[in-house]
Amino acid sequence: MADSKVWFITGTSSGFGRGMAEFLLKQGHKVVATLRKPEALSDLVGQYPATQLLVIKLDVTQSADITAAFEKAHGVFGRIDVVFNNAGQMVSGEVEATNETEAREMFDVNFWGAAQVSREAVRFFREVNQPQGGRLLQVSSGVGLVGIASCGYYSASKFALEGLSEALANELDPTWNIKASVVVILVTLLEPGPFRTQISENNRLAPVHPAYADPALPGSKVRASLETGDFNDGNPEKAYAAFEKASRLEDPPIQLPLHRGALAMASGKGKSLLEAVERYGTWSDDLYFD
Questions:
Q1: Considering the domain boundaries, does residue 285 fall inside one?
Q2: Tell me, what's a Pfam family for it (predicted)?
Q3: Out of 48, 153, 154, 212, which one is annotated catalytic?
């Protein structure tokens, strides 16, 4: 295809990462698919030539792996146009119920791993790509906008990614031609709502804390939804097309909620903040040195 791009994708073993890789390959793009266990993509390796698909072993919690993966991608394809920063994991449960070790491991992937990939992506776009430039798409979540019961640590990891990405986008020199954005599901934050992918199927659910056993509590209701998966009504195939479309926006938003659930979260959060400003704004009238 005439406008074929080179995409660097993390976390391609399953979920949005695997699905996005397949979608892009079918569209004729070149894909650098990274994951901890490359053998999981043996079927794709058999379908696509090495001139279109490069599979690299990458653990995003290991900085050396990240640097090596970008170097190998450069050696094979000469540049990277889009980084789809997707690798993540999910552990659910009330804050008091969640094991600290698992929560920290999740942060190592969802925040610190994503942060390290972001740093290398920006450096690569600025110092390696010729011509200079690139797009960084951060896969966040609707719960990266609004913290919900039984998803406290997962939400916190995505909140942290959102804050880092907003700051990063504001730091970039426009002359570098780097666009960054964030998704809910350019730096753009993609903020996807509940799409039917493996992250919900692979979600680790912490044992119920006795203090939160009441089925009427919000956390219990969220647990029940996570166990049944009934809320996952988003079609991931349609999400992939939206993600690819976002990579082509000339003036992308910093945050891009995708799914009616994510839109409701974003709208509700904005309304709540505005109401607080309007109701309590006068409290700030006399808080300054004369």
A1: no
A2: adh_short
A3: 154
Say what the pLDDT of residue 194 is.
Answer: 59
pLDDT of residue 265 exceeding 50, the answer is yes
Q: Which of 5, 30, 158, 179 is catalytic?
A: 158
CA distance 201 to 119: 30
Residue 39 phi, psi (nearest 5):
-60, -20
- Return all residues near 283 (Cβ < 8 A) that are at least 6 apart: none
| Residue 207 DSSP code | P
Q: Is residue 27 part of a domain?
A: yes
Q: Where are the beta strands (DSSP E) in the chain?
A: 6-9, 30-35, 53-57, 82-85, 91-92, 134-139, 178-184, 187-192, 204-205, 255-258
Domain-embedded: residue 22: yes
> In total, how many domains does the chain have?
1
Identify whether the C-beta of residue 38 lies closer than 8 Å to the C-beta of residue 15: no
Full domain range(s) for residue 172: 6-280
* Residue 216 contacts residue 171 (beta carbons within 8 Å): no
Distances (CA, A) of 87 to 36, 40, 173: 10, 15, 27
Write the pLDDT tens digit of every residue in 26-74.
Answer: 999 999 999 999 999 999 999 999 999 999 999 999 999 999 999 999 9
140 is catalytic: yes
- What per-residue confidence (pLDDT) applies to 160? 97
Give the whole-angstrom CA distance, residue 11 versus residue 282: 47
154: domain CATH number is 3.40.50.720
**Catalytic site residue 154?**
yes
175 contacts 131 by C-beta, under 8 angstroms: no
Catalytic residue among 118, 140, 165, 247: 140
Query: Quick one: 262 exposed, middle or buried, by C-beta within 10 A (0-12, 13-18, 19+)?
Result: buried
158 a catalytic residue: yes
In a domain, 50, yes or no: yes
